[in-house]
């Protein structure tokens, strides 16, 4: 028999409303007691008595056993989730930044207070990747996890590449459709993808990594040159987070734009869709596809977590207590494409091998192998000089010379 849930929901934005739309179509053993909102003057589509601006109305109500946190302020979300878990309430959250930044403490709080925090909606919207990493791949050796984890940047890249829209118009559309974060640099700069990768890696490898230690280079310096280059070669540019087990002791992670070939699953993942590619030792390659942003897709993942709480489901973080003691490392080399103006950047990156160089007027690029550490050290230089970096690492050296 499922437990009756009495729910307090923080946030009635895109995801909160999407969740509500879905819940009212279901006959689940649950009751939404209150929505906690920030702006009392905003016109709402539901009865006024369902709303409050006082978070303690929910957090201090002993009748409410479940908190759903769907706000876009990571610091406020942290305080809410911490207090709820500490006071014996189970929590569903979609705040990827907050979860990635406090994961270690949030796991400890769950253990200490016997409460459960579920966050499927925080990673790749409607794609059930966390539950699969946690349960299905429990005994699998995962060689790598990569994909498209950010709907807004993928929407922009798709519109620019497929329809010739300019970058700013595509970004504005992503914002109007409710996909983008409040500060879109989080999307286009690869931060949002990185937070999601960090959460996925905790479940895939049992490694908890600090966000500041992981490289993220985004698509904000995309120029018509890259688009022309990609079109000529029949490849697409996607923003791709990667986690790779290097050996039985080390996991590497980074977020970079990537040249994606037609033969790859991610090639056809367009607009706000996300995709996750899992390379497993026994299952081999598997691909998850679905909408990564938007009220209903994310709301469906949140509802799945809420439904799981009726049976007191908890993540066990099985791999964090596994026999393997994997460590995060940035000690790897990557093949990259670098479009640049400033020759000093090429010098500073200190390429270990160069496969191809091109100069024509304003368009200069180099394809070669660099240490990830050097990319991290030159991150500011890359941003300031408006250079564009793309991962070209899965192409063989021979293909690299000819793409
Ligand atoms: N801004 C995020 C995205 C929302 O575009 O993917 C979903 O997490």
Explain how this protein is built.
The chain is an alpha/beta fold and 403 residues long. It has two domains: 137 residues, Rossmann fold (3-Layer(aba) Sandwich), CATH 3.40.50; 227 residues, Dihydrodipicolinate Reductase, domain 2 (2-Layer Sandwich). The strands form three sheets. Strands 7, 8, 9, 10, 11, 12 and 13 form a seven-stranded mixed β-sheet that branches. A six-stranded parallel β-sheet has the order 3-2-1-4-5-6, with helices on both faces. A four-stranded antiparallel β-sheet has the order 15-16-14-17. Strand 15 and strand 16 form a beta hairpin. The radius of gyration is 22 Å and the shape is globular. L-homoserine binds next to helix 6.
What characteristics describe this protein?
binds L-homoserine, 403 residues, seven-stranded mixed beta sheet, alpha/beta, Rossmann fold, Dihydrodipicolinate Reductase, domain 2, 2 domains, 17 strands, six-stranded parallel beta sheet, globular
Average pLDDT, rounded to a whole number, is 94
C-alpha-based Rg, rounded: 22 Å
CATH class of the largest domain: Alpha Beta
CATH architecture heading of the largest domain: 2-Layer Sandwich
Low-confidence stretches are 395-403
- Name every ligand kind in the structure: L-homoserine
The name of the CATH superfamily of the largest domain reads Dihydrodipicolinate Reductase, domain 2
**Total discrete domains:** 2
Structural category: alpha/beta
How many DSSP helices?
Answer: 15
| Major beta sheet summary | 7 strands, mixed
Task: Determine the N-to-C terminus distance.
Answer: 59 Å
Quote the CATH topology of the largest domain.
Dihydrodipicolinate Reductase, domain 2
Strand coverage percent: 25-35%
Q: Helical amount among residues, as a percent range?
A: 25-40%
Total DSSP E strands? 17
């Amino acid at each position: 028999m499922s437990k009756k849930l009495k729910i307090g929901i923080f946030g009635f934005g895109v995801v909160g409303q999407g969740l509500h739309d879905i819940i009212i179509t279901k006959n689940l053993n649950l009751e939404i007691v209150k929505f906690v909102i920030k702006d009392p003057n905003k016109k709402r589509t539901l009865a006024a008595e369902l709303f409050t601006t006082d978070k303690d109305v929910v957090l201090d109500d002993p009748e409410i056993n479940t908190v759903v946190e769907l706000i876009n302020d990571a610091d406020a979300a942290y305080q809410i989730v911490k207090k709820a878990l500490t006071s014996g309430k189970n929590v569903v959250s979609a705040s990827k930044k907050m979860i990635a930044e406090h994961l270690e403490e949030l796991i400890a709080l769950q253990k200490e207070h016997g409460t459960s925090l579920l966050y499927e909606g925080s990673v790749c919207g409607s794609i059930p990747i966390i539950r699969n990493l946690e349960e299905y791949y429990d005994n699998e050796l995962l060689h790598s996890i990569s994909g498209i984890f950010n709907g807004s940047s993928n929407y922009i890249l798709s519109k620019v590449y497929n329809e010739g829209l300019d970058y700013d118009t595509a970004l504005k559309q992503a914002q109007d459709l409710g996909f983008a974060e409040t500060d879109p640099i989080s999307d286009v700069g690869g931060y949002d993808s990185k937070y999601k990768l960090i959460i996925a890696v905790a479940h895939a490898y049992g490694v908890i990594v600090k966000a500041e230690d992981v490289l993220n280079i985004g698509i904000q310096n995309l120029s018509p040159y890259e688009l022309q280059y990609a079109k000529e070669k029949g490849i697409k540019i996607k923003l791709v987070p990667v986690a790779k087990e290097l050996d039985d002791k080390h996991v590497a992670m980074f977020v970079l734009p990537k040249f994606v070939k037609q033969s790859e699953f991610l090639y056809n993942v367009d607009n706000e869709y996300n995709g996750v590619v899992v390379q497993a030792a026994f299952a081999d390659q598997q691909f998850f596809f679905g909408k990564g942003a938007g009220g209903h897709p994310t709301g469906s993942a949140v509802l799945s977590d809420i439904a799981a709480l009726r049976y007191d489901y908890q993540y066990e973080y099985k791999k964090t207590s596994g026999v393997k003691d994997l460590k995060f490392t940035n000690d790897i080399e990557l093949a990259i494409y670098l479009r640049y103006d400033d020759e000093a950047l090429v010098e500073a990156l200190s390429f270990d091998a160069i496969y191809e160089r091109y100069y024509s007027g304003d368009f200069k690029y180099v394809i070669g192998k660099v240490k990830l550490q050097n990319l991290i050290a030159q991150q500011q230089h890359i941003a300031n000089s408006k250079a564009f970096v793309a991962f070209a690492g899965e192409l063989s050296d021979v293909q690299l010379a000819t793409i």
